[in-house]
Amino acid sequence: MTNPNNEEIKKVLEDSKTIAVVGLSGKENRTSHQVSKAMQEQGYRIIPVNPNEEEVLGEKAYASLKDVPEDIDIVNVFRRSEQILPIAEETAEISAPTFWMQQGISNNEAYELLTNKGKTVIMDMCIKVAESVLLKN
């Protein structure tokens, strides 16, 4: 189970506009909030997916990925590794082409499930760090 190479990750970031962030918190001190705010400032549309929030970063929050009424380019996950599989199963049922697990998060079952469905899977990598390094503005 390996991540795509840097060129492939760069292309994912360049081709993506909408990022659904599972576990996005409205609390400004949380990493999910800080990373998502930084990505929003880089021009990405952030869609919060958290049943405990109504709105985050000025965007309506949804309880689950299936509730999001628009196309998603990247599902970015801020949940513990042992909580990943149900999110991956839900991602397998929507059109989002990329599943991104933040730094410190990996799940081999989710990787197998989603790559077998033709999706790009990135594990244990901060999307903001990747964006900063690969898309030097």
Compute the average pLDDT. Answer: 97
Q: What is the molecular shape?
A: globular
Rg (C-alpha, Å): 13 Å
What is the CA–CA distance across the termini? 30 Å
* CATH first level: Alpha Beta
SS-based class? alpha/beta
Low-confidence stretches: none
Number of strands: 7
What name does the CATH topology carry?
Rossmann fold
Element string (H = helix, E = strand)? HEHEEEEHEHEH
CATH superfamily, by name, is NAD(P)-binding Rossmann-like Domain
CATH architecture: 3-Layer(aba) Sandwich
* Percent helix range: 25-40%
How would you portray this structure in words?
- This protein has helices at residues 6-15, 31-41, 84-92, 108-116, 127-134; strands at 18-22, 45-49, 55-56, 59-60, 74-77, 98-101, 120-122.
- With 137 residues, the protein is of the alpha/beta class.
- The protein has a single domain (6-134), classed as NAD(P)-binding Rossmann-like Domain (Rossmann fold).
- A five-stranded parallel sheet has the order 2-1-5-6-7, sandwiched between helices.
- Strand 5 (74-77), helix 3 and strand 6 form a beta-alpha-beta unit.
- Helix 3 packs parallel to helix 4 (108-116).
- The mean pLDDT is 97.
